[in-house]
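ok so I'm stuck.
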Amino acid sequence: MKVISRQRNSRMCIICGLDNPAGVKAPFYNMADGCVMSIFQFSVNHQSYPGRVHGGMITAMLDEMGLRAMWSKHGCEDDFGVTMSLTTSFRKPVPYGENLISRGELIRDSRRFALIQSQIFSCDGTLLAEAELKYLKLDPHTISAGALVHEEMPYLIADPLADIPLVM
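replied:
not stuck anymore, here's the structure
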């Protein structure tokens, strides 16, 4: 699938924060079909049982795909919201230390709410985990008690990635 552009990374987010020593540091890409995707790896620091990623980290990645799916579909990073509900289904063990692909898609959108589906796949296209998220759209100043959200997301890194192959 064709990459259109890359989204910003934050400083300290556990999923996208480039300054967070325990973070995943995942990059996110706006795709030609309006979804968002990422190629990333969990590390041994994210494990539950040996060889497996903790379900909380898996769910955190699926949750991150929610807001980013709104950004990708709308073509800008101006929309913000909070997760109202998230239902995660774990299909197969998620390994750390291997490339994984996540995908998020905005399914339904209104002035106040958004419904998003997100998934994590192995590179061979095996579905490992998926979630349905309901978002409440809010002003970023309401969410972060007046903090300037875009100041927390300063990193927009040039990236030559042009395609993310995903066999579903």
